[in-house]
Amino acid sequence: MSAQDTYIGAIDQGTTGTRFMVFDHDGQVVTSAYERHEQIYPEPGWVEHDATEIWEKTQGVVTDALESGGVDAEQLEAIGVTNQRETTLVWDRESGAPVHNAIVWQDRRTTDRVEELEADGLVGEIREKTGLEADAYFSATKVEWLLDNADPIKTQRARPADLRERAADGELCMGTIDAWLIYNLTGNHITEITNASRTMLFDIHDVDWDDELLEEFRIPEAMLPDVRPSSDDDLYGHTDPDGFLGAEIPVAGAFGDQQAALFGQTCFDPGDAKNTYGTGSFFLTNTGETAETSENGLLTTIGFQRSGEPVQYALEGAIFVTGAAIEWLEDVGLIDDAADTEDMARSVDSTDGVYMVPAFTGMGAPHWDGHARGTIVGMTRGTSPEHLVRATLESIAFQTRDVAEAMEADTGYEIDRLQVDGGAVKNNFLCQQQADIVGAEIVRPEVDETTALGSAYAAGLAVGYWDSVNELRENWAVDREFTPDRDVEGIDERYDDWLRAVDRSLDWAESGGGGL
């Protein structure tokens, strides 16, 4: 089989659905398929996914993409995995059955536990070890909740033992979605290093699980996955030749989705920055082998690691709600389709003083307030749906400026060029607003599914499909650049008003919502 006839596959398991993409040597998409999965909201602020459904949909999209593209599984030299980060589940090691739905990264049910950590003075220690803010966003409190509250009947045992007892005996596995997919693909309990760095259990300096944090959250070491590099020359394992693919394929690379996009955007050097616009937005800047400490509400995280090479770090601004705000516009009937937003926003000259703060699940970087809630200010009787749509798009750009200013203050790097990807960057109005509001050149690549591409690159490097990162750089190509319009007036004043609107949203849930 010639090199031209072989490919790399990438499973991109996201918050709202799962995609499988097949890439060739030029980093171009050969075939793909996508399926959505159910969003489960048991209580206000709670978000869950059915992990079994996710695995079933994963098998479906892999099969569909290969069939529609006329690609045989044997033509895949390797598979990479990328995933929604922090979303966490616990499953039975022997049967593979989850003990409960996965708890999604957006879920806020453990906010009270985070407040206990704050009261106990543990926030600084957590930040120092993990690079993360103590927040319900991360996996640690989710695992703790599952061990305390999951229904033991779902373990399908005649006499279910206490979950913590079973976890200590190694009968249960915990992991983020990468570990769940790798387990189902290969039978091995393995997680990738960038995902491990998002659990709030992993010391990013010692590059290992932290005993004191495991003790604090009462999480037995026996249930933890092995941690491997993003691009793993030793492989995570192989698919079962008797399984759904009917072939033994190396699973050789994985990434948390935002680090995958960093890698897919070829941000390999310190100072390189990208922003991914998905359900939320995630702005990462490569800081090289230095784990920079943020003084401005950003997260220090692991950017990537190749086998046998030092860990590369990044600073991250995690914005919880961006694309989800556009979905909300659709949910409440202000738009019929996300594609409508560009024309509607252009149909008015401004938001007419309206600001929308989409803090539906709290505020992430740099504000970090789990009690913030969605807020619209400045409405008058003349406010139209078009004003609200434009304000929602502008909220994405303003939140990105929040992070860009924090990033510049922490790193000393001037953010004058930002590579962007994700579904929302197809919206030219948003990209131009982003350029104007941040004051930076916005660069959109030809292949905007950089999350899947990054995990494909990781897997392909591990098996020699690509020889070096320089080869990957040559694949990267610009689709369009958006330059700041310096003639636009009042950007700074509008940004100040945005910050006033953010202030209105903070602590709302904690204060009781302003009842009479």
Give the percentage of residues in beta strands. 15-25%
Structural class: alpha+beta
Biggest β-sheet: strands ordered side by side in the sheet: 17-18-16-15-21-22-23
The parts where pLDDT drops under 50 for at least 5 residues are none
The end-to-end span amounts to 73 Å
What is the number of helical segments per DSSP (H or I, 4+ residues)?
Answer: 17
Instruction: Write down the overall mean pLDDT.
Output: 90
Helix content range of the residues, please? 25-40%
Number of strand elements: 23
Alpha-carbon Rg, integer: 22 Å
**3D shape:** globular
List the helices and strands and how they pair.
Elements: E1 7-13, E2 17-23, E3 29-36, E4 48-49, H1 51-69, E5 76-83, E6 88-92, E7 102-103, H2 111-119, H3 123-130, H4 139-149, H5 163-168, E8 172-176, H6 177-186, E9 190-192, H7 193-196, E10 202-203, E11 208-209, H8 211-216, E12 226-228, E13 237-238, E14 250-256, H9 257-264, E15 273-277, E16 281-288, E17 299-304, E18 312-319, H10 323-331, H11 340-346, E19 355-357, E20 375-377, H12 385-411, E21 417-421, H13 428-438, E22 441-445, H14 450-462, H15 469-475, E23 478-482, H16 491-505, H17 508-511
Parallel strand pairs: 1-5, 5-14, 9-12, 15-21, 21-22
Antiparallel strand pairs: 1-2, 2-3, 4-7, 6-8, 10-11, 13-14, 15-16, 16-18, 17-18, 19-20, 22-23
Helix pairs in contact: 9-14, 10-12, 11-12, 12-13
